[in-house]
Amino acid sequence: MALDEQHAAARRDSATEETEDRAERARGGGLWPFWTASYAAGDPLPDLSCKVSRPEHNFDEGDELPPDYRALLMKMLRHEGERAGNKSFLGLMGTCIEIAETMAPDAGARLIKSEYLAEELKHAIMFHRIAVGLDPDFALRDVPYAHYAFHLPKETWADDALFHFLIDLNGAFHARDWRESSYVPLRKISRTVERDELGHSEMGYYFLSALCAERRGRALVQALLAKWYSAALDMFGRSDSPNTPRFIEWGLKSVGNSEIRSAYKEYVDRKLTALGLDLPDERQGRRFL
Amino acid sequence: MNSILDEIHDAYAAVGITVEGVATYGTYYRLRCARCGAALGCVGDKLLPAMARELVDGEFELYAAGVAGCACGLQKARAREIDPARAAAALARFA
């Protein structure tokens, strides 16, 4: 082969390697998105379909909404929080960037966290569209997360991993509940949000698995678990919440707080046990039973 | 400053951690080592009343063992000062 041809071939090989390397890095070292492996093995989340008889409602963007329905829908979206116009959500994402910068064990973990951030910002756009369709003023309203779970201190990489495994999973369960939502725009995005949030939870679980692979790391995770476990169970609200029957009646939720919490706990307990962790007492540290 | 934020400042001050002004918009604050200024994490200001002290106390073993806190050792030293026996037990647990 002539020298020019050899150089050209070498450049082609090098370009191919660079492209492959870039593609692998761009998808979190081949792990991202984490949800693909989970859904490939079947539906990873439990059935949360409505088991009680209720009227059928269907409202789309631009429809006139009954005042009670609108109030409950807005309440739900305020809790959801992932909106481009919600400065407090962007603030939370800012803390995620800082934790990745200062605590991630290596560049690979930082890259995975960058995929997570990108996907949460995608959700921020999706929920922004829903907010604009409902109330343009709401779209730019700052609504700090009211639940304490979003405000717990994160002082170690294990805190961050537990946050993602448990708190993002809460989002996946709620998104699963929206599959039957009477509000069409929410129903349309439910499957994407569910699968993404499940993937974020699996990302946290991946980091937890690495930590638990050695004794000191497992002791750290075990020491922090009670703090996050109780907060995660509290996130489903009080079992006797007076609003729940109204949410279900209007088709904005399909199951009650107690039922969804119970399904969540069963899922989480199975995965924590697989890591060799002892499960905390489910009533310990709880604020909202 | 709201009362929850006061509680957070007080709870962290005891172990040598400074709660820096707002880290990101509104509700999240950066934790820094009170001696060397290293970033040690973050906390939000929507904790429930009395929760901050409980949380910091819950991390005592981690500070004492050097699993959480600054590499400069300030929080580890503070934990030893606060409760030497508990700190020694934590060191053994995480050895």
What does this structure look like?
The complex is a heterodimer of chains A (289) and B (95). Chain A has 289 residues and is mostly helical. Chain A is built from 11 helices and no strands. Chain A has helices at residues 3-26, 35-40, 67-80, 87-103, 107-134, 136-139, 157-177, 184-212, 215-234, 244-249, 257-274. The termini of chain A are far apart. Chain B has 95 residues and is α+β, with helices and mostly antiparallel strands. Chain B is 46% helix and 19% strand. Chain B is built from 5 helices and 3 strands; from the N terminus they run αβββαααα. In chain B, strands 1-2-3 form a 3-stranded antiparallel β-sheet. The model of chain B has no long low-confidence stretch (mean pLDDT 94). Chain A binds chain B through residues 87-88, 90-95, 98-99, 102-103, 142, 144-148, 150-156, 159, 216, 219-220, 223-224, 226-227, 287, and chain B through 23-28, 30-31, 39-48, 51, 55, 58-59, 61-62, 67-69, 93-94.
Tags for this model:
heterodimer, A: 289 residues, mainly alpha, Ferritin, 65% helix, globular, B: 95 residues, alpha+beta, 3-stranded antiparallel sheet, 3 strands
Roughly what percent helix of chain A?
A: 55-70%
User: Which word captures the global form of chain A?
Assistant: globular
| SSE-based structural type of chain B | alpha+beta
Q: What is the chains' assembly state?
A: heterodimer
From the spread of the alpha carbons, the general shape of chain B counts as: globular
Poorly predicted ranges of chain A (pLDDT <50, ≥5 residues)? none
CATH architectural designation of chain A: Up-down Bundle
Quick recap of the structure?
The complex is a heterodimer of chains A (289) and B (95). By secondary structure, chain A is mostly helical.
